[in-house]
Design a protein that fits this description.
It is a single chain. The chain is of the alpha+beta class and about 500 residues long. The chain has 4 domains: about 20-125 and about 480-505, no CATH class; about 135-145 and about 250-345 and about 435-475, 2-Layer Sandwich (Nucleotidyltransferase, domain 5), CATH 3.30.420; about 155-245, no CATH class; about 355-435, no CATH class. It has helices spanning about 20-25, 30-40, 60-70, 80-85, 90-95, 100-110, 115-130, 155-190, 200-225, 290-305, 325-330, 380-385, 405-410, 420-435, 435-460, 470-505, and strands at about 135-145, 155, 240-245, 250-255, 260-270, 275-285, 315-320, 335-340, 360-365, 370, 375-380, 390-395, 415-420. Bound molecules: iron/sulfur cluster.
Length: about 500
């Protein structure tokens, strides 16, 4: 080819092909450790019926390795993995020279979507066996992942109803016209003439009507379940509520960049010691708060599996998106929660008539509240019995001469009284805990522990959104990414240990 200077091989220099693929890769290549760590995973539940029989039997471990290694190298597409299994030495090495097609890989991934959670849990146990898990501090956080659909391929509930009506009337009109034509042709050519077929236009409209109708029925069914209604009752649905045609499970969410798009909410619990992800999930609920109970349960299971003693406390930190009484009550059984309320160090807005409970600091050890003027409000149990049973009453003994009287006291009040509900007390206890310097020190680490590892998944693995449709498959893909994250951590940990051992042996 013009312009390129091709040099022929120098035939005098002996050109030796390495005897095996492993030699091509060299002993230092990460792929060897990857092979070792994936050998440790018990994957008997994946394609459990695999017998090695059939035309081109591919071992589940080999297919799994290709999918995991692909993801570790930012290759998620099964078509791309198929190509890599022919061209890239590390992929050829892991495939053992076999060439599974993208269909085989994709079907394997779909068939085993329900089992990926077990695979992920095995990676957690593998890291635990390696001594990589501390279970001292765990950071919980969520991240929005773009769904494999466009916001332009969606329709609102109001529009669905309008479109259904419009298409139905158009189809009726076309049918009427067709029948009229049929009658005219019957008169012209005789009754047995088959001179007319269903117009293309009609087929198109019917197909579209069917898609809209089924999407609307799905949405109504979902809302009926949410509102606990029977099948006969119409649910309450906002006309602006949207659903995507391509991925019906994806939901409109506020993404990181500040724009709304269809996505899923991926949750992770990251162990501070080595950044191993101990628990994870993916749902279509945009609100983070509802995920905390399940995530805390997962952490408890890991504690059990690892054999953590009951008196060893695991602190789980979460941001204000998780702050609720229901979530705070998940504490116990070895878990201490540190959840920010979002009000730390913030001033109350001026619109309130008198200072609300949020302005006062609870001191749990003495069961007193410290007011903005620095005085202590003590519990008045005698007067509590006169009030509603679920309220606690605290009174300030001395409001005389306080410069904040105007803002703090209600009209006619001489001494400030706080009537505190159980929920307010629980929230105040959490806020008080977050003010302790040793708890603050733990909480401050939350951001980098969680976000650094989420960043590694999004930037390092290039996993910014799911490439499959449907919640089950999207969740499996997210869990697969978390499993890869843990495997990479384990690989680097092993490599570090071996390097240190080699250095020690040399010294
Ligand atoms: S009015 Fe009483 S309760 Fe309110 S800030 Fe002053 S001393 Fe504290």
């Amino acid at each position: 080819m013009a312009g390129i200077d091709y040099k022929p091989y120098d035939m005098d220099t002996p050109y030796l092909f390495p005897p095996s693929l492993a030699d091509f890769l060299g002993p230092e290549d990460e792929v060897h450790i990857f092979r070792e760590v994936t050998e440790e995973l018990d994957i008997g539940y994946l394609d459990g019926d695999f017998t090695g029989m059939g035309q081109y039997p591919h071992h589940p471990r080999m297919l799994l390795r290709l999918l995991l290694w692909g993801m570790a190298n930012r290759v998620v597409s099964t078509r791309r993995i198929e190509v890599m299994a022919r061209r890239d030495v590390s992929f050829i090495y892991l495939a053992g020279g076999q060439r599974p097609s993208y269909r085989t890989l994709s079907r394997f991934r779909r068939r085993n979507a329900g089992e990926i959670k077990r695979l992920f849990q095995q990676t957690v146990l593998l890291c635990a066996r390696l001594g990589m898990i501390g279970l001292g501090h765990i950071a919980l956080d969520g991240t929005k992942l773009k769904a494999h659909t466009s916001k332009h391929g969606a329709m609102s509930y109001g529009r669905m109803k309008q479109e259904e009506e419009r298409l139905s009337s158009e189809i009726d009109a076309i049918m009427e016209q067709a029948e009229r034509l049929d009658r005219e042709e019957g008169c012209a050519f005789g009754e047995d003439c088959n001179g007319y077929n269903l117009p293309e236009e009609l087929k198109r409209r019917e197909g579209r009507l069917e898609r809209i109708r089924s999407l609307r029925e799905d949405l109504e069914c979902e809302k009926r379940k949410e509102q606990h209604l029977t099948a006969e009752l119409p649910p309450m649905i906002d006309d602006r509520e949207q659903r995507s045609f391509a991925d019906r499970d994806a939901r409109m969410m506020l993404m990181k960049r500040g724009e709304f798009d269809y996505g899923y909410n991926g949750q992770v619990c990251v162990d501070e010691a080595q950044g191993v992800i101990l628990a994870g999930d993916l749902t279509n609920e945009a609100f983070d708060g509802g995920h905390l109970p399940a995530m805390v349960d997962e952490v408890r299971k890991v504690r059990e599996e690892v054999g953590t003693a009951d008196d060893e406390v695991t602190q789980v930190t979460a941001d204000r998106g998780y702050f609720s009484v229901a979530n705070i009550e998940q504490e116990g059984e070895g878990i201490e929660l540190l959840i920010a309320s979002g009000r730390e160090g913030k001033e109350e807005p001026q619109r309130e008539k008198a200072y609300s409970v949020e302005r006062f600091d609870y001191v749990p050890e003495d069961d007193v509240w410290r007011c903005p003027g620095g005085r202590l409000l003590r519990r008045d149990q005698k007067r509590e019995t006169l009030g509603p049973p679920l309220l606690r009453r605290y009174t300030c003994p001395d409001c005389e001469g306080c410069p904040l009287r105007r803002q703090c006291l209600r009209p006619g009040e001489q001494h400030r009284t706080l009537l505190v509900k159980r929920q307010q007390l629980i929230r105040a206890q959490m806020r008080a805990r977050l003010k302790l310097p040793q708890k603050q020190a733990v909480y401050r680490k939350r951001k980098w522990v969680a976000e650094q590892n989420i960043g590694q998944i999004k930037e390092g693995l290039g996993f910014r959104g799911v490439t499959v449709r449907g919640r089950v498959y999207a969740r499996a893909q997210w869990l697969l990414a978390l499993a890869v994250h843990n495997l990479l951590k384990a690989m680097r940990f092993i490599a570090g240990v071996r390097r240190r051992e080699a250095l020690a042996a040399r010294a």
